[in-house]
């Protein structure tokens, strides 16, 4: 009989849960993870990682389309969709196995099943409806994650109307595709399918694509998507989906009051996220739920003593790295580690891996102005960077927003090739509370895309060298 | 619940500390801010203070106890209504000592017990840190202060002393929120009467008043000048300058061209700049550990603007002629008075010396408050005809009184007087400004 008494039990083995469990174990706490489906959670199995594999393929496909630009040619380029999907699934499977190994190495017990709170400090674990274990824990951390939001009348059926999950394992390439929602998930699928050859239409209810990003970056993204041949309707919503003859007809209400119909092979719903707060035994506890998400204090403590929550189930931003950070600070706080600090939302980077990539951290220009701050804004275009031209990637922008008085880096907003690999430079500066002086004094390697991080800061202070 | 007092980590590398001595006895009442004990590390002796009030219920590690690991319980504070029975519920066993303690004979002699105690000016933390009922005052030995670049700059701009602040960032680093907390706390405590209509404010019969919210600029002025008057030992030197020759030359020069109009103040700026170049020792700042002498002569000039004042800088003023100074001053003042204030931070931050001129208001003479970290400010009064004694007889001259406020930590009376003498010479014989 396995040991069933722990210091910390994680409900959910996604990136928040498994990382928290490893950290707990490092700190000498006896830790366990209960996972109902896959270790690594949505991120690793049905989210971040497999979509990055698909985006790698679609990006290569796009590069092949423009080989001539580099003086190369290739004949008979074929997309074998089954193999593409297998590549993506293999990457996910390999990483999921890696997480199992990490947990074992760190002596974290793993329970296969669905956990629910069954009393103070106790969890009932069931598999396929049958009880398999009763766990006792001094500290219970809910890391149950989130799932795609559905809208009435637009329910996915898994065949013609997909969620992210079906969209990741297509059996055939849809000739035409409608994506509802232009957030990160929607636009990543838009890029995958567009670059693999589908005709892609995106409908966004808000006035611009990637609506959480800086307005200037959103505008540049819109232009890039339209140049690639995507059809984008902003300020529009889909009111009904009719299915007939293996096709879907969507009724779209446009911003100008007109209504139109779009006929497509497949629809992907990407209209947001709801927290997994059901069936985990919150009833009768003091755990508060607001708009499908669990309410916590800055130490991830819920209203119920001994019960904590981290990651997507606690609300936006729904990002794996936010979940991991919350998991670590939560268990460090539990273990009494000195020098633990609450997470600062202004320092959480956001990355969207569509083509072109978009990455940002901190305040947008508009948000800074709304706060009444006096700001300095720097901009540097990809066109002014040698490495970008050598890569054949002359489109993009690095934008920085500084407080004019203190020199604090308030925000950074980037669009273009590999920006998701560049944003951490600004995140480090923000975390260290650097000012423009430290960024200006930093020596950036030449020739790299990272030089644009430097130039954008220089530009904010009227000192750009290469523009 | 009884509060455990733990051995604090006074530096990032500290793993254990010694109890130099307890300043409170068992059973003695303590209130927030009281120094409980002095802790010795290999680097310094520091004080720990109570954050909560109560009674020191138990001293776990007595005076002279050596090598107490960080986070070990060193004492217990009982809250109101608790008695010693509350002690029994606590696990007071110190964690096992990681490394064997050095035998007392081999230990270095303890430093003199009470090293300069630093008054704790830091406000209590908004949320109590976990299991820590103490806060640590700044190192008494003037050691390195850990602060983020942003925090350093904000403190400098607000005229706050980092050594008086408590850091809440990683490893006690002073970060932005600490500066914001200090800025919010200081004026609120200093001027409770200004807070809008406090419910408990006594009604003054018949008195009518308006409470205006404190603007950021006023807050910064208040902080910087209060800091100045509280920390800088000011002394004052006044000198009378006859300016009839200056007025003649000014009239002559202004008559020659229409594209400039020199003011008396432009001459004052130039004379001060040349004086600073000739007496470089007074072009300096007190920075606690060093006296910084500036290689450039940057002269700030106080400009009154709505709800406050700002001090734009004529940089390298000793290398600039009267017209250049005049034109630049005019442009800076215009941008200073624009709404919103249009000066860039680098145009008003810094400067080694300041001039404040109230001559246009008819002020005969006044003494100005030094603008830290500068060491001197020159207060310039109105030029007016006054009786003077010349060669044993009464005569009339246009006289302008100037008072120099000086930071005695940096500049002594003689060097201040030397500067002022050169200044007077240049003002009274303006042609020598050409030399």
If you had to describe this structure to a student in words, what would you say it looks like?
The complex is a heterodimer of chains A (467) and B (435). Chain A is an alpha/beta fold. Chain A has three domains: 5-148 and 274-335, FAD/NAD(P)-binding domain, CATH 3.50.50; 161-271, FAD/NAD(P)-binding domain, CATH 3.50.50; 356-460, Enolase-like, domain 1 (2-Layer Sandwich). Helices cover 31% and strands 27% of the residues of chain A. Chain A is built from 14 helices and 24 strands. In chain A, the strands form six sheets. In chain A, strands 1, 2, 3, 4, 5, 6 and 19 form a seven-stranded mixed beta sheet that branches. In chain A, strand 4 (114-119) and strand 5 form a beta hairpin. Chain B is α+β, with helices and mostly antiparallel strands and 435 residues long. Chain B is 25% helix and 24% strand. Chain B is built from nine helices and 19 strands. Chain B has helices spanning 85-88, 149-158, 176-190, 216-231, 244-256, 264-278, 322-337, 345-348, 413-428, and strands at 3-6, 16-22, 29-30, 35-40, 45-50, 54-59, 68-69, 73-78, 134-136, 234-242, 284-286, 291-293, 299-301, 303-305, 308-310, 313-314, 353-357, 376-390, 393-407. In chain B, strands 10-19-18-17-13-16 form a six-stranded mixed beta sheet. In chain B, strands 7-2-4-5-9 form a five-stranded antiparallel beta sheet, with no helix packed on it. A four-stranded antiparallel beta sheet of chain B has the order 1-8-6-3, with no helix packed on it. In chain B, helix 2 (149-158) packs parallel to helix 3 (176-190), helix 6 (264-278) packs across helix 7 and helix 6 packs across helix 9. The radius of gyration of chain B is 29 Å and the shape is elongated. In chain B, 34% of the residues are buried. Mean pLDDT of chain B is 80; it is low at 94-141 and 188-201. At the A-B interface, loops of A face helix 2 of B.
